[in-house]
């Protein structure tokens, strides 16, 4: 089961309340909660892949942590990054490995 997300409210409520609400209630509260259609683990694999491909490393770090919580193993993360290196770019893979190494050795 996906963990309840409050990052929007925690970080942006005072500045951008509607965005915070949409982040927590729609994206994480409705889309990520559709576990009968796709597991949180699989959504994590997809999300990490999309963020790495775009080079969005601050968000990638947060979603790698979520992926680990959702059961994505170190070996699976290593394989995901290795595979994407050929499609998303070698420098992005190096950066992603730095994050993954930090997260999976904590």
Automatic annotation (TrEMBL):
InterPro entries: 4CMD/NDH-1_regulator (IPR052512), AhpD-like (IPR029032), CMD-like (IPR003779). Residues 17-101 form the Carboxymuconolactone decarboxylase-like domain. GO terms for molecular function: peroxiredoxin activity. It comes from the Bacteria. This is Gamma-carboxymuconolactone decarboxylase subunit-like protein.
């Amino acid at each position: 089961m996906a963990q309840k997300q409050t990052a929007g409210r925690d970080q942006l409520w005072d500045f951008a309340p509607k965005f915070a609400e949409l982040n927590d209630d729609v994206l994480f509260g409705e889309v990520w909660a559709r576990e009968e259609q796709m597991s949180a683990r699989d959504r994590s694999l997809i999300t990490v892949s999309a963020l790495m491909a775009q080079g969005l490393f601050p968000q990638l770090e947060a979603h790698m942590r979520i992926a680990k919580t959702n059961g994505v193993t170190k070996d699976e993360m290593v394989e995901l990054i290795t595979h994407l290196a050929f499609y998303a770019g070698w420098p992005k893979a190096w950066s992603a490995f730095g994050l993954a190494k930090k997260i999976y050795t904590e």
